[in-house]
Amino acid sequence: MLVPEQNGAEDVVVDVDVDVVINVDVEWRWLRENAAQRSEHPFEKPNHKQCQKERSDERSSKSNALVGEVMRSLLHWAALLLLVLLLHLADAWMKYNSYTATGRKRTDLRRKCPNVRAIRNFDLELMMGNWHVVQYYASTEELPEYACMRSNFAFSSEDQHITMNFSYIFAEDPLREKLQGNITWLIPDFGTPGHWMHTEDIYEGIYNTYVLDTDYHNWGLIMHCAEKKKHPRYLSALLLSRESTLGDNVVTFLREKLPRYDIDLSFMFAINQTSCEHLMESSKDDPLAYIVNEQQNAQDTFKVINKPDTN
């Protein structure tokens, strides 16, 4: 584009590019609009403090968003872990409580004790000594409650009595306090020494114990049954081992002997025998201690020993 330019007396023709003019004009307008956004006056210098504040607010916003995302992720995983834990606990509870697991009532609550034949050719002396109770059944219990259950059998030739001293802890006891007691039997007929009768007058009516089977050196199985007027029978069974553990095949072999006596095996629980060597012993000076009450007040098996007031 040729534009005449007045230069004294002569006209000078200048060649002007229209596109360049238009671009310059557009850039100029953009600069003015951008400057207007930065300050009230289009040609005023930008406020550096304001810019720093904006950048700081932007970084803070991004940081808060990141923290929020991390917290949401942690809460999500925590909820999943809690759900897994609850499912695990529910599965354990269902496993050990067959009443809930199967939705049926117990089938082993009878009035009379079963007819039991004790082991033949039983050697009483070989049965004596220390045993671990590796599994336990009682008709009055629906959940595993005990751990570290041990028993020691001894025969007195003087009074012809058998005594079992036993100890155990409650599995959920954080103090792991060892509780102790004993049971005494007599042998009504030495022709069948595997049948014992309880001597304690705390029981009403019949209370018999039978040695169902044993190899004397590794494992044994005994069963107790008591009858009380106007109450269901009390039936219990102890699966014994000389060691703290017993092979699965032997456990299965012995457990299979019990259903014939109307024992529901889903209520026969394993007894944990680990970490049982250093338990807290009960003391008469301990206000929380329990002691077996053998002679006084036979109706109460245990009594609380209160520390005397020294004030």
Write down the overall mean pLDDT. Answer: 75
- State the strand order across the main sheet: 3-4-5-6-7-8-9-10
Please tally the β strands and state the result: 14
Class derived from helix and strand content = alpha+beta
What percent of the residues sit in helical stretches (DSSP H or I)?
Answer: 25-40%
Order of helices and strands: EEHHHHEEEEEEEEHEEEE
Oligomeric assembly: single chain
Radius of gyration: 43 Å
Number of helices: 5
State the end-to-end CA separation.
Answer: 118 Å
| Low-confidence region ranges | 39-43, 96-104, 284-311
Main beta sheet: 8 strands, antiparallel, barrel
Q: What is the approximate shape?
A: elongated
What portion of the residues fall into strands of 2 or more residues? Answer: 25-35%
Summary tags:
single chain; 311 residues; alpha+beta; eight-stranded antiparallel β-barrel; two-stranded antiparallel ribbon; 5 helices
How is this structure best described in words?
This protein has helices at 18-38, 48-96, 98-102, 124-127, 248-255, and strands at 2-7, 10-15, 129-138, 146-156, 161-170, 177-186, 195-198, 207-214, 219-226, 234-241, 268-270, 280-281, 290-292, 302-304. The chain is built from five helices and 14 strands. The model is unreliable at 39-43, 96-104 and 284-311 (pLDDT under 50). The strands form three sheets. It has an eight-stranded antiparallel beta barrel. Strands 1-2 form a two-stranded antiparallel ribbon. It has a two-stranded antiparallel ribbon with strand order 13-14. 28% of the residues lie in helices and 30% in strands. The N and C termini lie far apart (118 Å). It is α+β, with helices and mostly antiparallel strands and 311 residues long.
